[in-house]
Automatic annotation (TrEMBL):
Organism: Brassica campestris
Domain Protein kinase per the UniProt entry, residue ranges: 219-549
The family this protein is said to belong to: Belongs to the protein kinase superfamily. ADCK protein kinase family.
UniProt name for this protein: Protein kinase domain-containing protein
Pfam families: ABC1
Alphabetical list of SUPFAM superfamilies matching this protein: Protein kinase-like (PK-like)
Residue spans of biased composition, Pro residues class: 58-69
GO MF term list: ATP binding; protein kinase activity
Region annotated Disordered, chain positions: 48-70
CDD domains: ABC1_ADCK3-like
InterPro entries registered for this protein in UniProt: ABC1_dom, Kinase-like_dom_sf, Prot_kinase_dom, UbiB_kinase
Transmembrane parts of this sequence: none
């Protein structure tokens, strides 16, 4: 019996036989899964449905009763055909429900007995839990029993059904609402619920697609491969093409049940907003935001569009796989996608037995998560190991696109700026960032928050980036969020959880792995190459301090940025020059002129020192008028060492740029063109003048030292 990992909902590993169709679609024989003209494949042995290069799904034949023989070779569909198929799927979902507090209040408010029964069920479960919390508080054991109570709450949510499973998972990403112990426990919530009858699932497919089951599939598993809170997944073969697909079918009555639960939960939210003073967050707004996301998950055509958009944005990388959509077999309650054969990312032994490395896959996940958060802003909002599969050819497959989120454009740049302020230990600026990130309302005073940030980060930043554990950082920051009136946006909490999950997976393979160290090259590359004005300002803030240029910071950024496979030294050079010569860049030019004088002097004096050191001893005395032992320059040892270190540092930076694969002397041509501009010529003249003045002063000092007679000894 072949064990199949689908990961479509929670990546459950289930075992199931298959069926083949006979004369009637109602006649189902429970036999081994039917693979026409194919050998049975071992688990995680093959990605059977690879994405097409053009991202277009082949269209099925026009007849609803095609030949039963699987079509192995088929023509590539025209893009117009694919768009038409998507339009037909949208037509099948035209009556999909959209979350509306008013509509659910009108509907369920007219069914008081039904609402009362569900209320009693919920209050009995949660009331008993609240009573235990009250006893713990009276006995002073709230902290002592917190881990135990968090586990109890997780089990209660599981018993109460899909809405509360989703609610618990949502709370697990909200450090501003829950203490760390609850965050950790609720993150373990599994979507595993009892399956519903297969006959109902098959009837739903036929009803939604208006096609008989055997006209769509040549075979389908008789039992679900995986079951989740909102639906369950079957494995099937398309009749017209023979392709292996995953068919997700929505749980019957799920919309009704979720609507009733949110109607009741909103009632509780109103009471909390009105009477519970210590909760500063708008609970009702949180409930509505979360309910809106869950309702979006109920529309499988929306999920299909999410998957297609995610594929377009992120599957351009060779190591990322996103299954494609079969629009003609997708509707509001049925989703048909390419089947991905793979292994859940937390199954290290199984992954490594295939010659793959978990850390390589985790790094792929981290880079993709950073692109989701900081480049395009469209990201997977349901991160857990079951939605990430390792394919046999070493790709990382993303699954389940029902719950997605977006990072606002201004927040993407504010997050990178926040990292710069963190590196600089500028806690006042960090606190101000929380306004831009919408963590705090404008009327909140950040003054008392600054010491809390300083106390935590001063200790955390004693570690290097490669030593700092991301989960420790998130937990500590979460404690600050919990103590003060923060309202953490869902996008930020979800991406933190995603990176924490990836670090947790990596720690199984390498206890020394740090997600921050793996993320730093991406941040460095973005700072060095992105032409966005906000990021250019952030780079200046990072490189200049107290009127001095920090060459060590630039060297470190180049070292880290060059580790990113998309880094280009050409991209790093051009934006800086454009910024330097901007008409509004006078303040920056003054700083650069001052630094250019220092660097030019360092190279000139360094050349003198190198020449002096290469001379024989007798020539030193001859050239320097008998003062060969004093050295060629009137500089104290500390100043000389600092000057030579500056020269060596700049040389190393230039070598780093040259070592980039994209480096080509031809890239200097646009630089030369820029330097022909009048502003550049004026800048060059000021640099040369400054260097000339400093070298003249040093030469005069050297001359005076050489001509001043040494004092005669007293007889």
């Amino acid at each position: 019996m072949t064990s199949l990992v689908v990961g479509q909902s929670l990546g459950l590993t289930l075992v199931g036989d298959g069926v083949s169709f006979r004369n009637s679609r109602r006649h189902v024989a429970k036999s081994k899964f039917f693979f026409p003209n194919r050998k049975r494949l071992a688990r995680a042995a093959l990605v059977q449905a690879r994405p097409r290069e053009d991202g277009v799904t082949p269209s099925p034949p026009s007849s609803s009763r095609p030949s039963p023989a699987p079509v192995v070779q088929y023509k590539r569909a025209d893009l117009a055909d694919d768009l038409q198929a998507e339009a037909r799927a949208l037509g099948r979902a035209v009556d999909a429900s959209v979350y509306s507090p008013e509509l659910i209040a009108r509907k369920h408010g007219s069914q008081p007995l039904k609402a009362l029964r569900r209320s009693v069920e919920i209050l009995t479960a949660l009331g008993g839990f609240a009573l235990k919390l009250g006893i713990d508080q009276r006995q002073g054991k709230l902290e002592l029993n917190m881990k135990k109570r968090a586990g109890e709450l997780r089990r209660i949510f599981t018993r109460l059904g899909p809405t509360f499973v989703k609610l618990g998972q949502g709370l697990s990403t909200r450090p501003d609402l829950c203490p760390p112990a609850y965050l950790e426990e609720l993150a373990e919530l599994q979507d595993a619920l009892p399956t519903f009858p297969d006959a109902e699932a098959f009837a739903c497919i036929e009803r939604e697609l208006d096609l008989s089951l055997e006209s769509i599939f040549s075979s389908i598993s008789p039992d679900p491969i995986a079951a989740a809170s909102l639906g369950q997944v079957y494995k099937a073969h398309l009749r017209y093409s023979g392709q292996v697909v995953a068919v997700k079918v929505q749980r019957p009555g799920i919309e009704e049940a979720i609507g009733l639960d949110f109607y009741l939960i909103r009632g509780v939210g109103k009471l909390i907003n009105k009477y519970v003073d210590f909760i500063t967050t708008d609970v009702l707004a949180l409930i509505d935001e979360f309910a809106c996301r869950v309702y979006q998950e109920l529309n499988y055509v929306q999920e299909a569009q999410n998957a297609r958009r995610f594929k377009k944005l992120y599957a351009d990388k060779a190591d990322v796989l996103v299954p494609d959509i079969f629009w003609d077999y997708t509707s509001r309650k049925v989703l048909t996608m390419e089947w991905v054969e793979g292994t859940k990312l937390n199954e290290q032994v199984a992954i490594e037995s295939q010659g793959l490395k978990v850390l390589d896959l985790v790094n792929t996940g981290i880079q993709c998560s950073l692109r989701q958060l900081l480049e395009y802003g469209f990201f997977h909002a349901d991160p857990h190991p079951g939605n990430l599969l390792a394919t046999p050819d070493g790709k990382l497959a993303f699954l389940d696109f029902g719950m997605m989120s977006e990072t606002p454009e201004e927040a993407r740049f504010a997050i990178i700026g926040h990292v710069v302020h963190l590196v600089n230990r500028d806690y006042e600026a960090m606190a101000q960032d929380y306004y831009a990130l919408k963590f705090l309302s404008p009327d909140v005073d950040v003054t008392p928050i600054i010491p809390a940030l300083r106390d935590f980060f001063d200790d955390a930043l004693n570690y290097t980036v490669s030593e700092l554990n991301f989960k420790t950082l998130v937990d500590g920051l979460g404690a600050v969020f919990y103590q003060y009136p923060f309202d953490v946006p869902a996008y930020y909490a979800l991406i933190l959880r995603s990176l924490t999950v990836l670090e947790g997976l990596a720690l199984y393979a390498d206890p020394d792995f740090k997600v921050l160290a793996a993320s730093y090259p991406y941040f460095a590359k973005r700072l060095l190459t992105d032409q966005n004005p906000y990021l250019r300002d952030a780079l200046i803030e990072l490189l200049f301090k107290d009127g001095k240029f920090r060459w060590g910071r630039l060297e470190n950024l180049l070292q880290q940025g060059s580790k990113d496979r998309d880094f280009s030294s050409k991209d790093a050079l051009q934006p800086v020059l454009k910024l330097l010569l901007d008409p509004n860049g006078e303040e920056l030019r003054l700083l650069v002129i001052k630094e250019a004088v220092r660097v030019s002097e360092a190279f000139a004096l360094g050349s003198v020192v190198d020449t002096y050191n290469s001379m024989p001893e007798f020539m030193r005395s001859l050239v320097f008028n008998g003062n060969g032992n004093g050295g060629p320059l009137t500089m104290n040892p500390t100043e000389l060492e600092s000057t030579l270190e500056l020269r060596d540092q700049v040389s190393r930076i230039w070598s780093l740029l040259q070592s980039s694969e994209s480096f080509d002397p031809a890239i200097l041509q646009p630089i030369a063109q820029v330097l022909q501009q009048p502003e550049a010529r004026r800048l060059g003249g000021r640099v040369a003048g400054g260097v000339g003045q400093r070298l003249a002063a040093r030469f005069l000092q050297q001359l005076l030292r050489a001509t001043t007679p040494s004092p005669s000894p007293v007889p």
